[in-house]
Specification:
- The protein is of the alpha/beta class.
- Helices cover 32% and strands 17% of the residues.
- Strands 1-2-4-3-5-6-9-10 form an eight-stranded mixed beta sheet, sandwiched between helices.
- The longest helix is centred in the last third of the chain and has 16 residues, at 312-327.
- It starts with 9 loop residues before the first strand and ends in a 7-residue tail after the last helix.
């Protein structure tokens, strides 16, 4: 199935990164001459196509734009765990694969953009490979530094972040077991992107997770066209939900890996765009972030978790202004 509504300057590409096959979108300015390389990292449940509204404005700014499907998503390999190790879905592996993709593209340094899990990853790339990253922007996801003590997610949910309870369900077997066929995956994605039932029923609650019994009641999400929803379902059915859900099964792996990291400060200029109605990643999570990210620019949009779509014009305006004033200008913040 052809990708709907992609900028004509964008092509589909593949690369073998540290022994795994990745699919990525590659965008080049019309004259093929670019000022810098931006790598955009999606989250859950998304794919590279989730950045479709931002890619054109970055191309217009003269950037080469690279947008991979992350491990387990879309056209990228989705290794089964077990027998494969869960570390394939860890943050360090993602950081290493992004570094390798940049190397293959001849980019000694890159600008990183992230959303949801992708926001977590861009900060980890900067920690693992600081020489690679010149600037970071993240939509919805604040920087949460590595911890020196391991706290099980159950304890985090019980004590400080009840809005992360959905992650307990996603890390378990239920969602993967119940959502397997293409129609089921399409219903699931429709729910995650905000489809509602005739009496206001929803398909997802941050304190409960995916409301599986509601999925069949929901009307179509307003955030995706029928063609876009079909495309998402087509991409997800390739390897199912096993790969995407593995990202919620790496908490201990990520903790173990990060014990060898040094100082937790993010020293590069960073833009954080929070979404005022994001129930999972509340703007309050970013409180005090400037302590560890001293060159931070903050902005907020009126949107829920899918701010890249819901508030695309405003997000693009903020990102463009930051690139012009900070990335290509002289300022460290706006």
């Amino acid at each position: 199935m052809a990708t709907p509504t992609l900028d004509p300057r964008v092509s589909h590409q593949t690369a073998e990164l540290n022994g795994r096959n990745y699919h990525y979108l590659l965008g080049l300015p019309t004259d093929k001459d670019f000022r810098a390389t931006a790598v955009l990292v999606h989250g859950w449940p998304d794919i590279s196509f989730g950045w479709r509204h931002q890619i054109p404005i970055l191309l217009d700014l003269g950037l080469r734009v690279v947008v991979p499907d992350m491990m387990g998503y879309g056209g990228t390999d989705g290794p089964k765990v077990p027998p494969e190790p869960i570390e394939l879905y860890g943050h360090k592996r993602a950081a290493d694969d992004i570094k390798e993709l940049a190397r293959q593209l001849g980019a000694p340094q890159i600008i990183l953009g992230g959303h949801d899990w992708g926001g977590s990853i861009v900060f980890r790339v900067a920690l693992w490979h600081p020489e690679l990253v010149t600037h970071i922007f993240s939509v919805c996801t604040p920087y949460l530094p590595p911890s020196k003590t391991f706290t099980p997610l159950e304890d985090v949910v019980r004590t400080v972040l009840p809005n992360f309870a959905y992650q307990l369900q996603l890390a378990g077997p239920e969602v993967e077991a119940r959502i397997q066929t293409k129609p089921q995956i399409r219903q699931f994605l429709n729910a995650m992107y905000g489809g509602r039932g005739p009496n206001g029923e929803v398909g997802f609650d941050v304190r409960k997770g995916v409301l599986l019994d509601n999925l069949g009641l929901l009307g179509k999400t307003p955030l995706l066209t029928e063609g876009e929803l079909d495309y998402y379902a087509e991409q997800y059915v390739r390897t199912g939900l096993h790969g995407p859900l593995n990202w919620y099964r790496t908490r201990k792996t990520n903790y173990d890996d990060e014990q060898s990291l040094g100082a937790p400060t993010i020293g590069v200029p960073t833009l954080l765009i929070t979404a005022s109605k994001d129930a999972a990643l509340s703007p309050a999570l970013a409180q005090g972030m400037q302590t560890l990210v001293p060159r931070l620019t903050r902005a907020e949009v009126e949107a829920g978790h899918w701010a890249l779509v819901q508030a695309a014009p405003r997000v693009n305006e903020i990102v463009s202004g930051w690139f012009e004033g900070v990335v290509f200008g002289e300022k460290s913040v706006l």
